[in-house]
Amino acid sequence: MDAGVAQERGAELSEFLRGRRARLKPSDVGLVDHSRYRRVPGLRREELAQLAGVSMAYYTRLEQGHVHNASLEILDAIARVLQLSEAESLHLTHLAGPKRPFRKRPATRPRRVRSSLCHLLDSMTGVPACVIGSRADILAWNGMAAALFGDWSQLPARERNWARLIFLDPGYRDLFVDWEHKASEVVSYLWMDAGRHPGDLQLSALVGELSVKSEEFRRIWARHEVQNKGFGVKRMHHPLVGEITLSFESFRAARDSGQVLITFHAEPHTPSAEAMHMLASWGADATAAGAVEHSD
Length: 296
Hints:
single chain, 296 residues, alpha+beta, six-stranded antiparallel β-sheet, two-stranded antiparallel sheet, 13 helices, 47% helix, elongated
């Protein structure tokens, strides 16, 4: 692994483990809590190491980012003690698990959404749908997505990115009723991507740009939260049809690592469903951009 990338991943691992250790109280893991005698929040390193069945010296090296080839058994034990979610456990494995073949990802390598997936998008005339790739890039969408979120074809290719839209476009702050939650989801996606693809130069550039331009991005990024939100509910305030509540579902595209199809739908016979019908009539005239070439 490139020395610079190894150092960066070591720093990410250290930050992640320290943050997860600090959020646990001794009572959370069955220990007696002598709170007033503790000088640091959360579990101590020695407590975590003992509960996970590893030596204090080994865990200290791991938390300092000096271990990059930990066994899955050790990482599973640490994840159990830290009470990590499935997504957090996977992220820990990406950061510290057995080594994988590594190469820096090139700055430009064309990638297209498969034509069959584009045809599927076009056929979903009443359902907003889009394909998201690495770094939260928006790769393809249909007319209903353009009606709901705005016509992304009018943006330069590099700006078709959820992170840039959420943190740098005021219109998206107004669109999402719980903007903070949406912003946290997008940052979590970037953290997961960083763990899966070390050395991604464009991801590093994106994080750097957003850190400079958005204080809120810096704050949320520093929390190092990871989650895998494959489904859920979003409340939005659309400028044309008002407040709507939509469920979303995510489907990973077969054989296309990093590409995810996301759909949005309203519960039948609700005001939100009526609002979506209104948007559908307008969305028929909106630009259905189909697949767009995007660097990877």
